[in-house]
Amino acid sequence: MAEVAKPLAALLLCCACAASAQAPGNAPANADAIPAFSKLDSIEARVQGCVTCHGQQGQGTANGYFPRIAGKPAGYLYNQLIGFRDGTRSYPPMNYLVAYLPDAYLKEMAGHFAALRPAFQAPEAAPANPALAERGHVLATVGDAAKGIPACIACHGKSLSGMEPGIPGLAGLRSAYIVAQLTRWRVGERRAAEPDCMKRIATRLSDTDIAAVAGWLARQTPPAGASPEPSNVVRMPVACGSQR
């Protein structure tokens, strides 16, 4: 518990600083403008609340509890920060951290992590169940037409590095994190702009499917310096509101 409490305490301290600096009575007239006080420090100082959990370069944690955010499309990261700020995505530490930050500040934070390319952690080990591994491979690379499930690579890219402007890379994520997010999409705890493509896909995945595809994705070795692919909505098998 002590090890968990330390980063959480540091993050909440940053939350308190952000809240104090931009309390409603002190809010800038232009909500899109970065507050003047923040221009006096570096971007590295401004993202200390982020790196406390996600790592100094946004590389994520080895156990996958805090995901890799480095190298994700800036548009995707910005959308998530807006979601946390406005309450459409729920995780209390993140909700508190960005509660008082204006759009321009969040865009700058998103751009900072989108530009980083730290080394990836070693992939997870292969499972003992060959059938589960094969099911994961099929879902990720081919999909399941009978269940209306497109291949992961159709949208997230052949190298799983994502697609501009709003589709995240899956490379380097741990299976536990992927399982948790797919489950949240399926039960409605996580949402995106309509048409919410991930909601539709996740509701068609069984528990076994989720475990299989998460395990396969976490075992892939990402290419060094992987960057998101250019936007290509024509290629996408389903319409996604996040790509508008």
From TrEMBL:
Record key words, sorted: Heme, Iron, Metal-binding, Signal
Signal peptide coordinates: 1-23
An annotated Gene Ontology molecular function: iron ion binding
Residues noted as binding heme c 1 in the record, renumbered to the chain: C50, C53, H54, M94
Binding site for heme c 2: C152, C155, H156, M198
Gene Ontology cellular-component terms listed: periplasmic space
Modification comment: Binds 2 heme c groups covalently per subunit.
Residues annotated as domain Cytochrome c: 131-221
PROSITE patterns listed in its UniProt record: CYTC
Superkingdom: Bacteria
Gene3D superfamilies: Cytochrome c-like domain
UniProt name for this protein: Cytochrome c553
Species per Swiss-Prot/TrEMBL record: Janthinobacterium psychrotolerans
